[in-house]
Amino acid sequence: MESGKKKQVVCVTGASGYVVSWIIKLLLARGYTVRATVRDTDDAEKTAHLRAMDGAEDRLHLLKADLLQEGCFDAAVHGCDCVFHTASPVLQNFTDPQAQLIDPAVKGTLNVLGSCSKAEAVKRRWYALSKTLAEEAAWKFSNDYGIEVITINPGWVIGPLLQHKLNIGAEAILKLINGAPTYPNLCNEWVNVKDVAMAHVLAYEVPSANGRYCLAERAVHHSELVRIINDMYPSILLPDRCADDKPFVPSFQVSMGKIRSLGMEQLIPLETSIKETIDSLKEKGFLSF
């Protein structure tokens, strides 16, 4: 444990999520005491992997909180040095975007910030992994109330799974391997979950951290994703054609300039992230080859 972190207490929202679980794991490894909020502290399916982490018995405290309930984060935030707000829905299939996506993201962000504004111990730093509308609301709140906001905006996150639940990135890899007839005509940014967790923690620990950080090791078309997987696992039957006949969506480069200012000179290569994802899918029982 690092001596400087022994007495530091931080709050992390949305603790059962994929990225958030890795943030908590890293915070515990660095000696922090973590107050982690979940919707149901008694839901073993969503909390068992958190309770099993090294350091959790002494320094992880799970608290119940609802994004849409004003004031319910007051107790979790009180006395904390920092708040990592990561609770925000990530859904591909939804019937009511206002209720399922926008309200939890925007209202949830403002509720957490409202709790931060009441907590004198929270240093003038607050970190959000959020969607566009929630981020806009956070910046406005920051300007109005003088709370410093730092946002981490990753691409599609892949890598090892800590819980038995698929995130969007791992699900995309699984679909390619599980017999999809085509691959989508998409170019996405990809980043390892361990790098995303590290970026969050460093954004708190590095005094000069500020503003918005975009995070991706590489942006590639799904056809390139298929090629990488095929090179690693030539026996897997992968899709050999695109879902449409249109020209491929062009690739692009993601600037690493600002993220390097946090001390992250190199991100985990995409090939390593893909292998870790597939190995984890096998370990968790989603794949059996």
Write structural notes for this entry.
With 289 residues, the protein is α/β, with parallel strands linked by helices. It has a domain at 1-147: NAD(P)-binding Rossmann-like Domain (Rossmann fold), CATH 3.40.50.720. It is 40% helix and 16% strand. It has 11 helices and 10 strands. The protein has helices at 18-29, 44-51, 56-59, 74-77, 97-118, 132-145, 168-177, 193-205, 222-232, 257-260, 270-283; strands at 9-12, 33-38, 60-64, 82-85, 126-128, 149-154, 156-158, 187-192, 211-215, 218-221. It has a 7-stranded parallel sheet with strand order 3-2-1-4-5-6-9, with helices on both faces. Helix 6 links the parallel strand 5 (126-128) and strand 6 (149-154). Helix 5 packs parallel to helix 6 (132-145). The mean pLDDT is 85. InterPro entries: Epimerase_deHydtase, NAD(P)-bd_dom_sf, NAD(P)_dehydrat-like. Residues 10-121, 124-209 form the NAD-dependent epimerase/dehydratase domain. One of its GO terms (molecular function) is oxidoreductase activity, acting on the CH-OH group of donors, NAD or NADP as acceptor.
